């Protein structure tokens, strides 16, 4: 039974898999359906949710559902602690009680990979998402549209593709900017809905190291938007991406009067280097750069 409250910003939603669709060699779209998915809030852009995966017994019998669920969840042993993974809402259809979530296919390794490989229509799952009955700020949203006229730079690897795809769909029609995306294979390229003034660059890694093609492509895109570097910017504190989470977003982008708003997400080491290029080498105001290390190379999925 789903536990719901009218006061919590986020809540659990019991769902089952309604459909599984292969989008490309590296991506699969899972459609979930549940009796109260119409009570999930969605603020567009990169609105994220949690996919609660089956525990070691293949179910959810030990998942805490009370207000202090997180502390109780952390206290569970590994076998009974349901893995949590963060994803972007791709489509929410409240009238049909359905939500689409796109997953990267890495093979049957790790809890998410096994779920993506094994789930079929009827498979049970649990989502945690914004509660539409809560009338305050939900959170879980990092993209904030910049002031009109400020160019937009969107950067991501395959883990950020669902978020970038949705952000592009939400941009005003007169937006000017660049979107640079690195994915495993050329077969993963797809046509994305976007404003006419946003140039889209696809990069196929094809076995190259992560970021090897993304880094220079983003530097070229920044050059097209900003012109030649004119001055160095503010120094940045060093973030140990092997120990700390690389994650910072501007609260009110565009009010700085800067020339660019950037949203970048993907492998933490790559994003760290690109942030340094924009802020320290090109002088972009750090308050105009949202950057998120979605994952870290070499760190195994728990």
UniProtKB/TrEMBL annotation:
It comes from the Bacteria. It holds the Pfam family FAD_binding_9. Residues 10-137 form the FAD-binding FR-type domain. Gene3D superfamilies: Nucleotide-binding domain of ferredoxin-NADP reductase (FNR) module, Translation factors. One of its GO terms (molecular function) is oxidoreductase activity. This is NADPH-dependent ferric siderophore reductase.
């Amino acid at each position: 039974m789903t536990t719901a409250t009218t006061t919590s910003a986020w809540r659990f939603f019991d769902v089952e898999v309604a459909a599984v669709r292969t989008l490309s060699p590296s991506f699969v779209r899972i459609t979930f359906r549940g009796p109260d998915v119409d009570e999930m809030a969605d603020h567009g852009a990169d609105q994220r949710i949690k996919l609660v995966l089956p525990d070691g017994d293949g179910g959810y019998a030990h998942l805490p559902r009370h207000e202090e669920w997180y502390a109780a969840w952390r206290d569970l042993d590994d076998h009974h602690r349901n893995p949590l993974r963060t994803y972007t809402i791709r489509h929410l259809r409240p009238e049909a009680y359905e939500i689409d979530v796109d997953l990267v296919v890495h093979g049957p390794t790790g809890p998410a990979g096994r779920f993506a490989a094994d789930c079929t229509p009827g498979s049970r799952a649990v989502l945690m998402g914004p509660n539409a009955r809560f009338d305050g700020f939900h959170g879980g949203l990092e993209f904030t549209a910049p002031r009109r006229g400020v160019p937009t730079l969107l950067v991501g690897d395959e883990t950020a593709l669902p978020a970038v795809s949705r952000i592009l769909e939400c941009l005003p029609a007169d937006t000017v900017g660049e979107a640079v995306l690195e994915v495993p294979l050329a077969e993963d390229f797809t046509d994305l809905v976007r404003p006419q003034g946003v140039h889209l660059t696809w990069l196929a890694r094809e076995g190259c190291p992560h970021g090897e093609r993304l880094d220079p492509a983003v530097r070229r895109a920044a050059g097209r938007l900003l012109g030649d570097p004119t001055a160095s910017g503010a120094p940045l504190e060093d973030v140990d991406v092997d120990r700390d989470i690389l994650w910072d977003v501007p609260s009110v982008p565009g009010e700085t009067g800067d020339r660019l708003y950037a949203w970048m997400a993907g492998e933490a080491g790559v994003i760290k280097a690109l942030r340094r290029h924009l802020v320290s080498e090109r002088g972009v105001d750090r308050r105009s750069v949202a950057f998120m290390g979605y994952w870290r190379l070499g760190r195994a999925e728990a």
